[in-house]
Write a structure and sequence with these properties.
By secondary structure, the chain is of the alpha/beta class. It folds into two domains: 90 residues, no CATH class; 211 residues, 3-Layer(aba) Sandwich (Rossmann fold), CATH 3.40.50. The protein is 57% helix and 10% strand. The protein contains 15 helices and seven strands. The strands form two sheets. A five-stranded parallel sheet has the order 4-5-3-6-7, with helices on both faces. A two-stranded antiparallel sheet has the order 1-2. A hairpin with a 2-residue loop joins strand 1 and strand 2.
């Protein structure tokens, strides 16, 4: 209804919606509890119980309305459990089946066409990866429901330290032999798939933001860091099977002097070799860009967010082309410039 120059929900609609949502969530804030208390006073006890009967069976509706009226609903909500589902099954079985079918289709669609974002930041030590990861997460956090950061791999199998935590001397430990390297590589591959299946994909399906500081491709560029001494053809072949296929790569670079002024973890010759490999990486990836960090973190952050925004725009247009095209055609028909040169 129209009230004070705004469209607002009628008290009956607001009470039913707010009570149902808080019951499904199992919690309510003090402000929401107070609002339900006010709505019961506006509606009256009889009308409130009639509306509550759509959600609760038998005497439970009166108990819930009493809790709304005296402000104790927050204590009762955790005890209600699956009562709304039982009510739906008893009063509207066909409607509940249709709802669950539609919800299942929506969840499946979200799983295969996630609304989240997966970003990987690559580059040699000292180029500014950790700083960009933190700032990028802060910049994009309002665009996504939740966010999570990782270093190199999910770490489902191995502890965090063994999962690729930063090291002061990345080449200090000896390289493993061919057999040990192959077994370790298989464990790494399994860790990526387990982490993706049970942690990353569910997060992405719920409009989450995932940011990795390094990823599997880092092993192909700097195998000594991960003590890999096995055949590189095997590492490259396994790399094609590491999920997912739709992630974004932000590859950072800077001049040798700039990097060495920040960190001196590897010799100059090794640094130059890594820089060459990192600069070549975006050429073989469709969703990768090379960013120079010499102008400072704000400039790098601006380039990174622009690249992310362009990707999200392209993805949105691709996923919703079916209804964007008719809107575009309608806008062209209504344009005053239509037919002009």
């Amino acid at each position: 209804m129209w009230r004070h120059e705004f469209w607002v929900a009628r008290p009956r609609v607001e009470f039913t919606y707010l009570l149902a949502k808080r019951t499904f969530k199992g919690t309510a804030s003090p402000l929401q509890v107070y609002r339900l208390q006010v709505l019961v006073e506006l509606l009256g006890r009889a009308d409130a119980e009639k509306l509550a009967s759509r959600i609760f069976l038998g005497g439970l509706k009166r108990r819930v309305v009493d809790a709304c009226a005296d402000g104790s609903l927050g204590e009762l909500l955790p005890k209600l459990g699956a009562q709304p589902w039982r009510t739906g099954l008893a009063l509207h079985p066909w409607g509940l089946i249709c709802y669950l079918s539609g919800e299942g289709a929506r969840i499946a669609r979200r799983w295969f066409q996630s609304t989240g974002l997966f970003v990987v930041v690559l580059g040699p030590d000292g180029v500014g990866k950790s700083t960009l990861v933190v700032r990028l997460g802060q910049e994009l956090r309002t665009c996504f429901r939740r966010g999570q950061f990782f270093h190199w791999r999910p770490g489902v199998i191995a502890p965090k330290k063994a999962a690729g935590a930063p090291a002061d001397d990345p080449h200090g430990k000896p390289t493993r032999g061919a057999l040990a390297s192959t077994l370790a590589l298989l464990g790494i591959f399994l860790d990526y798939w387990l982490g993706y299946s049970f942690i990353l994909r569910p997060l992405l399906a719920r409009t989450g933001l995932v940011i990795f500081d390094r990823y599997y491709q880092d092993l192909l560029i700097d195998p000594r860091r991960y003590r890999y001494g096995g055949p590189m053809w095997l590492a490259k072949w396994i790399g094609r099977l590491v999920p997912p296929a739709d992630l974004l790569f932000l590859v950072l670079d800077a001049e040798d002097e700039v990097i060495l002024s920040r960190k001196r973890e590897v010799p100059l010759a090794e640094l130059r070799r890594q820089r060459d490999r990192y600069r070549q990486f975006p050429q073989g990836e469709e969703r990768a860009t090379l960013l120079n960090t010499e102008q400072g973190v704000e400039s790098t952050l601006g380039q990174a967010t622009r690249f992310v925004a362009e990707y999200l725009t392209e993805r949105f247009e691709r996923c919703h082309a079916g209804w964007l095209n008719p809107l575009s055609e309608a806008a062209q028909r209504q344009s005053p410039l239509r037919g002009t040169r």
